[in-house]
Design a protein that fits this description.
The protein is mainly alpha-helical. Helices cover 51% and strands 11% of the residues. It has 2 domains: 5-104, DNA polymerase, domain 1, CATH 1.10.150.690; 142-245, Outer Surface Protein A, domain 3 (Alpha-Beta Complex), CATH 3.90.930. The termini are far apart. This is DUF2063 domain-containing protein.
């Protein structure tokens, strides 16, 4: 139990005021000018992280709507993480799960997740596992790059920009990975390739993954599918999406 519950209550009251100064009164004893300075510092700090992570979202919404959206996030979302680099992740969660009254494009949450993925993969703590870089992918367990995200979207997020704002959903699949030089790359794939990557992570070897994919597709000739998949898997290994096989 806290030795000073009154101080904790004061902290919570002050935090509520800083998040929503227009509707929550500041606690007694707090100078208004100092509170406004502190509020601006906190908000501008928060906004700085979001501006850097979501430049396309910001540009397409415009400064006024972007600022309003960040204020709603700051006010309404239970932002409890102490890590600044996790703030963009929480913003993506807010766009997906928060109760947001302000009008916004239907594709905004997907676009934000697409922009955030670069940061997420860049800072991912993903030690490289032991692997055989030249192992036979069909015969052995495939080792995928641990610094990778296999993402599915309802909208063609990689095309959204000043010259293109989609009107209709278009299922889109993008693999984001970090290479050996710590550079982050985006690779557009189709639904089958995205599913194959998921199966490679689950199955004992590449052939088993292809057999399962063939069964899901109702494809009678899994051997023919394996022949078609071979150059795809080789390309993934060359790019660093696949590292190799277990030793």
């Amino acid at each position: 139990m806290s030795a000073n519950p009154g101080f904790q209550q004061f902290q919570h009251a002050f935090a509520r005021h800083l998040r929503d100064p227009h509707h929550v009164s500041r606690p007694p004893g707090i100078d208004g000018r100092r509170a406004r300075i502190y509020q601006r510092l906190l908000f501008n700090n928060l906004r700085g992280f979001l501006d850097r992570c979501f430049p396309v979202c910001r540009a397409l919404l415009g400064e006024a709507r972007w600022t309003r959206l960040i204020r709603c996030f700051w006010r309404d979302w239970p932002l409890a993480t102490p890590w600044f680099r996790e703030i963009p992740r929480e913003f993506v969660r807010y766009l997906n799960d928060g109760e947001i009254a302000m009008p916004r494009p239907r594709w905004l949450a997907d676009l934000a997740r697409h922009e955030w993925a670069e940061l997420a993969v860049d800072v991912m703590d993903a030690p490289i596992p032991s692997h055989d870089a030249h192992g036979e992918l069909l015969a052995h367990k495939v080792v995928l790059n641990p610094a990778m995200m296999n993402l599915a979207y309802d909208w063609s997020v990689h095309r959204i920009g000043p010259d293109f704002r989609p009107r209709k959903p278009q299922p889109t699949f993008i693999v984001v990975h970090r290479d050996a030089a710590d550079e982050v790359h985006f690779t557009e794939v189709n639904a089958l390739t995205s599913r194959l990557l998921d199966l490679l992570a689950e199955c004992e070897n590449g052939r088993q993954a292809i057999n399962r994919l063939a069964a899901e597709l109702g494809h009678a000739d899994s051997a023919a599918l394996a022949v078609q998949a071979a150059p795809l898997l080789a390309g993934f290994r060359e790019r660093g999406i696949i590292l190799g096989t277990t030793p």
